[in-house]
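Example record for the data management plan.
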Amino acid sequence: MAEDDPLDYARLVREALRDVPRQALRLAASEGLPGDHHFYVTFRTSHPGVALSPGLHARYPEQMTIVLQHQYRDLAVGEDAFSVTLRFGGAPERVHVPFAALVAFADPAAKLGLQFDPEPEAAGPETTESRPSEPALATGPAASAPAAGNVVDIRAFRRRDE
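Corresponding structural encoding:
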């Protein structure tokens, strides 16, 4: 489909799915996380616009998972990116992540998991041997995310007691 086609459904779906973590993070920034909600956010650390300390980037050269639950502060959410201060080994570090760098977003309390394809313009030669990163601040098991691709199985979002 042509890039200038206003009904480029693949692009529309990508944009709509990336809005889910943007809105959830905005709510968390303004009102805090309600109940047992917490977020696992996986992103490509080498994506343009990602800002990490050199030490974190050396430790996570391809991708990283952060957990927003109890020990985060100064969460700021913009249209294209978010920033947050987290503790790594007891030391506070500021992390800046463009939404285009997201690989996955999960909220285990809601049994929600999303996986994102790379943005077409940001997609480059990627290795097939990239190892999954361990959560930087793991506090519990992550929700299982839907299979990769453009199809989202609605059964993944239904409560088990229905």
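Summary line stored alongside the record: The helical segments are 9-31, 54-59.
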